[in-house]
Structures
1.
Amino acid sequence: MTMRGSSGDAGPGPDPTLPLPALDLPARPGYLPVGDTAASQFAPPGPYAPPGPGIPGRPHTRAYPPAARFDPRQRRARRVLRRLAIAVMAVILLCVAAFAGLLALTPSVGNARELVAAQDRAHGVAYPGPPVPARFAASLVATEDKRFYSEPGIDLYAVARVAYSYLTGRGLQGGATLYQQLAKLLYTQGRSSPTDETEQVALAVKLYLTYSRPQILQMYAEVVYFGNGYYGLAAASCGYFGVRPSGLSWPQAAMLAGLVQGPSMDDPLTHPANARAREEHVVGRLVATGKLSAAQGAAALAVPLPALVARAGQGCSP
């Protein structure tokens, strides 16, 4: 039979309307024939091929090269952070264990009030003394231990600062709380070696756990030295100003609170300039902590030193 092609030439030839047979091409991973929409919806794209439209109803996840998913620098950073976290936890656990051992080795503080009474008898001071007045308490806390009403016996910020200073060769620096100072007065005989300082930290925590804050202030005020032979707040108040502690003015209370750090060097009778400087420092702390306004602080410092100590040595009338 004679067939005509599309050009009208006679001769045998295939029907141009029939589809061509599919070629059997070798399969490659991630390779899909162009235009195969149905297959591209269900076959995942290759690792480097552009993502297809994905399976209907599911969010498409873009494929990234392995190098982007597993960056060696990120793995190293994770290892470093993990090791650092382990080291920090080990140090914390070691410190906790060491402090627990220190608490076990230090004596009990249940006899603190008995020790205060013994020191008062040794210094000829009546025990118990009068209550600590609010003005002196505020002045003492403002200049010696501003976190007294919130700390657990020790100031963690100050402890860290002192430890850093000691390890870097700068020596021991201030930062002892009123609890630590009381422990120094009662249990370590006023010594300040590194061993004694460490023991005072443990004793301060025990004092915090055993006594209330008013009791701590009362014991401290009864045994601390104010210079000129005056032990305890009552003796110092009557000796320097001729008034009982309850009658202390703000400048008088500030001057006494400033004496506890250097009672001999800041004695208002023998070193008035030093005493005045300490008074100004304490009043400044009272203003900074909000206990006094700026106007009240200025009024306190306006009282001249001779007027404050005009009745020195006269004592308190019965």
2.
Amino acid sequence: MADLLNIPQPTDKKLPKPDWIRVRAPQSEGYKETRELMRANKLHTVCEEAACPNIGECWSQKHATMMILGDTCTRACAFCNIKTGVPNKVNADEPHDVALAVQKLGLRHVVLTSVDRDDLEDGGANHFAQCVEFIRTTSPETTIELLTPDFRRKDGNLEIVVKARPDVFNHNIETVPRLYQRIRPGARYFHSLNLLSKVKEQDPSIFTKSGIMVGLGETKEEVLQVMDDFRSANIDFITIGQYLQPTPRHAPVDRYVTPDEFRYYERVAKTKGFLMVSSSPLTRSSYHADADFAQMRDERNRRLAAENPQPANDNK
């Protein structure tokens, strides 16, 4: 059946990494300071848990994506390096600890994500909302981006997160529909798409964001269709990055997409009307999130001004 679906299967053959995907090991003092702060506050980061290649650069600038609700996921996606199992009890003090870390780092923009917590009745929605509330209290100037699970079979709990009014609601689609059964078996493509569409319906002021990985066996045509699906869901920001195999037990890399192809995707996405596009081999969901947020906000303001020009002042 897998051959009929044209889904690539695991193989012992490992493709050599091209030069454009290589990064230096983290060594800076800023990196060490960020790591020590996370340890002192007993916080997890997706940067470490998912073995992000940009951790050295981001942490040296005191940018970190904090991972709430523990470090153990209830799902087992074929691309993800976060451990799977039975999660521990939710730490009720975590929203306070996260807010304290944001304050100590002096973050202008913070990204919070989590493991999937299918074991919780609300999927972790109330915990996300509490984190937003604590950060707003202690760091009112900080903009907040949430990268959430899909809240599948958790009807009514998306609304809890939306009512907390994060500046950005991010949920990654991850791959094209054809590859979902192998790459993201616990999720459903159109459920995730609908989740993002509902955010816009409930609060149009919240920016929505989603991303996919390439190099898993998708075609260019499928990537372009995903772009169209994103626009139909009114998603503001699309990210496209190279999939990297975390360990031999994870899905293999089908190919390393060239920088030229990433630039092609960026050009096409811009013509489709996204407010913001990040497409490169090392693009990750929260890579350069603070600068990208500022650029996205400016672009929305520019478009709104163009749609509603101010009348000339005849009294001048």
3.
Amino acid sequence: MNKLKLGLPKGSLENNTFELFKKSGIRISRESDRTYKPFCDDEELSIVLFRAQEIPKYVESGVIDAGITGYDWICETEAKVMQICELVYSKAGFRKVKWVLAVSNNSNIKSVKQLQNKTIATEVVNIVKKYLEKNKVKAKVEFSWGSTEVKVPEFVDAIVELTETGNSLKANNLKIIDEVFFSTTRFIANINSYKNPWKKEKINSLSILLQGALCAESMVGLKMNLNKNKLNKILSVLPAMKKPTVSNLALKNWVALEVALEEKIAKEIIPKLKKLGAEGIIEYPLNKVIP
């Protein structure tokens, strides 16, 4: 049987990645936190868990055919890989993450220009060096193995750290003085693997399913019954990806209407639909929405 070797991120993205695959129709599970080769109910996939930082280079070298990692790690490792699609999700939600330049709350440093000949700690050394070069600043950039926030101001003058909410920085008495780099999760593939017809088809199919599951996160389905004479008014308040599905009911002059729309819009228009004559309104979750 053909197999696609797939690397998934272990750590902060792990749970949300497993959930995304579940909504895509692929169930992944593992016996314990020490298991790096989880069970998958898709027999055409062979899954291994790596740190997100390692995945770009493993994909580039062909150790694995494809993987999910961050755009930041693709840029940091300068890995030559195919970026199949962007998947905007993170540890805390469905949004981009950013690497920020931060200093102690008590520091007089207010901009990157003031870091001339200073020391910066970070996990993304190459990204920071390019950032400093762009700003024409010469500073020492040292690699941090973790716990980067605690190094300011005793050991370094500033840090560049990944954040979604900024809460961890605030908790460590740090303030953000600039945004260095924005990143999203990416589905990537090995260049040679993508030339293999079967692997290419499998990778593209996975991409469609994953994007469909992610798209469905913010959407719901609505069903309702209504008299035909109220159809035009109800259609006028229904934003939809395409025209809603309308089908005849056994009851004369009555139809059923079904539509997919943003969840935040649904809560606003359901009362309006009721006032316009819609009955039996049902809201239901969606697993996948394929544009």
4.
Amino acid sequence: MKHLLFVLMLFGTFECMAQKNVAAGKWVQLFNGKDLKDWRVKITGYPLNENYGNTFRVKDGKMQVNYDQYTSFDERYGHIFYKQKYSAYLLAMEYRFIVDQVKGGPGWALRNSGAMIHGQDPTTMGLKQDFPISIEVQLLGGNGKDERHTANLCTPGTNVVMDGKLFTAHCIDSRSKTYHGDQWVRVEVLVLGDSLVRHMVNGETVLEYQKPQIGGGNVINYDPAVKKDGQLLKEGYISLQSESHPVEFRKVELFNLQPYMNNPKKLKEVLQGLAAAKTKPVKGATTK
């Protein structure tokens, strides 16, 4: 871990991330804009790949989480998992919240979704398990009046190290701006195995932590065999949430950094190249 952190320190805070390809063919489009063939759905109370109520769908070229076929939410928390796991990468998503929260959704889930990283294999989730054991990059939308940060950290069945200490609380706010209404927001997550995770919003670093690991609570009905407290999370699956408020994603892409993890010099060059791409604010975004 030390040499990876040293690499990051060599070129600054990595404030500006890429919106354009740094090298041809390096960005992987996890969402192809057409269908969900590379994704697997797990909704609480239903077997893997039973997409209750057509919750996850593609509409107008966007991946959408929608509840128009629900009469009530009834704690049907869901996740859609990309087909393969990753260890070191830059993940980028562009999302926005739409219409109203479904009837029966909890108050805390208003304009609330998330991207789970280093997640457990969905085939190991219990039928009634609500969340995968994972690290959550919480995505929040403004309620129109209050300050409400996005790209926060939540820890379902996990802990992290922050400022040199084990962080065991369930969630912590980032220092992002607030994004009200239906505007698009770009969130990026730099993940370097079990060494470092960094959250960025529209090009600004808003949160950082180290040593993601299994531990803590906030997950129910899981198989105890998969929860090995204290085990560092070096890799895992990426998933997006359904938590009762409709949301859509127009981009989900990933730059794989794993090939450079054993070559600090090359990793530094690649990260510098990404930083040099200079993220621009997402078109149409306003903040408060």
